[in-house]
Structure formats: C-alpha cells, structure tokens
Model the fold of this input.
Amino acid sequence: MSEGRIYRAVVTLLGWGAVAFLIFPVALTMLVSFNESFFIQVPPAAYSLDWYRNIGNIHEIASATLTSLGIATLGATLVTLLAIGAAIAIVRYPLPGKAALTAFLLSPVAVPVVAIGIALVQYLIILDMAFTWYGLMIGHMVLVAAYPVRTLVASMTLYNPSIEDAAASLGANRWVAFLTVTLPQLKPGLISGFLFAFLISFDNYPISVFLVRGGLTTMPIELFNYISQNFDPTPAAFSTVYIFVVSAVIILVERRYKVVSLSVGR
Amino acid sequence: MTTRAAAAGAALRTSMPGILLVAPLVVFLLAFYVIPFAGMLRESFGAWTGDPEAVQAADWTLYQYQKLFDSARTLRALWRTIEISLIAVALTFLLSYPVALLLLRLGPGLRSALLTITFISLAASLIVRNYGWLVVLADQGPVNNLMVWLGLFERPQRLVYNKWATIVGLVHYCMPFMILPIYGALSRIPRSQWESARILGAGDWTTLRTVVLPLSMPGIFGGTTLCFAICASAFVTPLMLGSPATSMISQVAAEQLLIQLNFPFGSAVIFTLTALMFTLVFAYALIVRKVLRINV
Done:
C-alpha cells in the first residue's frame, strides 16, 4: 500500500470512529427507551412504549418544561435585540476601546458557569428579585448574550454596507433602508444567534440550580432530579423525544438559513 | 488645548451613534454581571457571620483565601479539576482532528450531514448526553457486556461514578466545540498550500505535520481554549458521572453555597478558579505566540 492510501485509510478510520463515539450514547439511549424491563438492559429483551407513558410521572415535568420554554424564548429574544445594536456598533461605527469592549461582551462565556449563578443569587437577594421567573431569566440572559453578538458580528462582517447606501441613494430613508435592506441580510446571524441563546438557556442547569426555589423549577432541574433518584428508563424516553424535537428544529432551520455553516466560519 | 478639546469633541460626536447602539447591552451586563461579580469578589474578602441572610463584610480580610489554601480537600479538588481538564482537552483534540480532516475530504452531501450531526449533538441537552453515558457504562450496559464476552472482565464492573467516566462525558460534550473551529481553520487553508507541498515532494504525513497542523493552529487554539474553559468549570458532568471522591472545584463552591450556606468561602473558591483559568489560558496564548511563533 502506498503512503497516500495508508494516510487516507487512517484518517477515515479515526474520523468515523470518533463520529461513532459521538453518536453511540445518544443512539443507545433511544434503543433503551423502548426497553420493556425496569432495568437498563442492552440489547433489550422485549420492547414496549411504557416509558413514554411514564414521562408524565417525572415530577412537574410539564410545568417545568413550559417555564423553561417561556424563559428561553423571552430571554433569547431580549438578548438578540440587545445584540443587534451591539453588533452594528462593533462592525460599523468607530468606538473607543473597541477590542476591549468586544472582549467584555463575549466574556460571560469564559467565566465558570456556576460563578454567574453564585454571584447573581446573592445580588438578587439584595434586590429582592431572587427566586422569581424574571430573576432566573436574567441569569440565563447574562450567560447567553454573547452568542447572538458573535453570530451577528460574523454575518455583518460578511455583508457589504454599500448596498444600504444604494438603497439610500434610491430615496429610502435610514429606517426604511435598515428594515428592508440591512435586516434581511442579518437574518442568518439573527436566527442562529437566537437559536444558540435559546438552546443554551433551555438546557441550563448550573445557573438555574441557584436561582430556583419552591414552585419555580425548570426542565433540566427536574430531569436531573429524576435521573439521580430513579433507575428506570423514563429519562431515556424523554431524551429521545427531546433529541427528535431538537434535530427537527435544527434541520428545518439549517435548510432555510444555513446556520451550521455560519457556526463554522468566524 | 482648545484644538485638542475640539478634536476630542469631534471624536465623541463620531462615536456617539456607536455608543448609543451598544449602550443597552453594556448597561444590562453592568447591572447583572459586573456588579454581582464585584459584589462576589468583595464578599470573598469578608468574614462569615454564620447567617447567610445577613452577610457582613465590614472589614477586609484574606481569611477565606487562607482557609482555601489550608483546606487539603479544596486544593485536591482544584488540582483534580486542572488534571481532568487537561486530559479531557487532549483526548478531545485527538478525536476531533481526524473528524475535521474527514469533513474536508467528504463530498458536499455527506459533509453537510456530518456537520448537522455535530451541530445537533452540540444542541442536545448536556443532561441527556450524560444520561446516555450512564446507560453505556451501566452494569448491564454494552461496554460491560462486551468486556465479559471478550473475557476481559470476569463479571460486570462498576464503570461509572469515577474520574474516567467524568472525563469520557467531558470529551463527548466538548467534541463539537473542537471539531467546528478546527474544520473552519482547515477549510480556510488555500488549495495551493497543499499542492505546493505535494509538488515539493512531501508525502501526506509530512504535509500534515509541516503545513496543515501549523496552518490550522488558530482553530486548534480556539477549540482547545474553549474546551478547557468548559471542562475547568464543569459542574453537571462530574455531578452525574463522578463521585464525591472525584468532585471538581465548581461542585465544592456550589456545595459551600447550597448546603453550607457559606457565601464568602464559596465566593473565594469560585474566584480562585476564575483567576486560575484566565492565567492558564493567558500562558497558553503566550506560549503559542512566542515559542511556536504562530499568530492566533
């Protein structure tokens, strides 16, 4: 075998092996969700849909999922709106200390996630806002604000501002030019920034655990509690539903807006 | 003097629209990120009164930090965090680089499918993915069954709730964050670079070592830095796949707050971690720039 063929074989083998490693636990979770037995058993001896019916028995799962959906939707919308202004300012306007400012806006991603929760809970207790849904949402917003900033800056850098000038020279005022020319161009950055912010907020555990108490609870908290107290495959059924919904959303959004390619380029 | 003031005024006028546009986000982050963090830093220099509702930090003291460096358990957790993170980042890199190389060689259809899979696993819940590892490594799980069948284990072994299960979970979580930037950097290497290496007689391995690896360094740097930050601040993964004996530093800090209600000590622990993380990332960037002379 020639050197080139060995090289290609090694890359192919290692590459697909790593992909299998990435997929394996998720695929296995799906398989186990159809297992009839109470215990995790691979491969399942008999199949049933019982664990899907049992999803409702995860404590408060319906209301917790609704809370997570509400907080992630509103929080991601708000940070995306805030990020539009910030991204336009960073890409298009002169700003004092721009590099430091950008680093600051992106920094919440780099600090320990637990730290955001720990710092906020003490502060929100002083403000008398602790353990409310909006206090929880604020915590998530701090964590996820960097994502729409990053994707919007990326999609604006690719975009040619002279098109907007052309619109202006054709008689459009600044707002009309912004709404009809600039905004549609920003769509991929907007969609993928919102999607990142939404998914990370929806999935967050380490901030929420500090900011929930009493009746206020989220999907990851309840799922985590169920997994740590029970051994049956109900979480596998829930995970399977979750993965299907997330995959469907991502594939649909990717078809229209190419979010995946946007997350690759920088 | 007046011209300077006028110039400063003109500079302010030209940057005014930008300042106004960025202001809402900056104000939000100041109110709910900078001030809470400053408060936490201040608190870590305070004494503990034993009453979490009435935290008193009247005087400045290094007591909490002293306590941290006297506590063998905390120091062990800190060291374990760094060790687990470094191992996990190295393994993630070794698994992810071939995937990025593979992505580069695939046709458009397969490539987009593989990128979508990577993206979906990035978006799939961390708790869901850790649960998947609980299933894979379960006593009656496939790994145990395989090992028994191969005769390597006499009977099923407990494979979860230890350091290596935590590392496996972290590697799995980090892979998309490593694959995407490295693939991004690889896809930006001009075709001509690969070809000129070939024309000069370099084989595939030599090209990989001398051309492709150095040119993909920005992606490697971005990916490894991000993964290190993720691993060093990991909380959920060691909680689900590790044991109390293998707890990482975020767990120690959280326990101080949630169970001991000792806010000053918890704050000191989390600040030490933050400072350590930034120092290590800074040193890493410095080494890559100065020693390897690669601009990242």
About this structure: The first helix of chain B runs from residue 2 to 44.
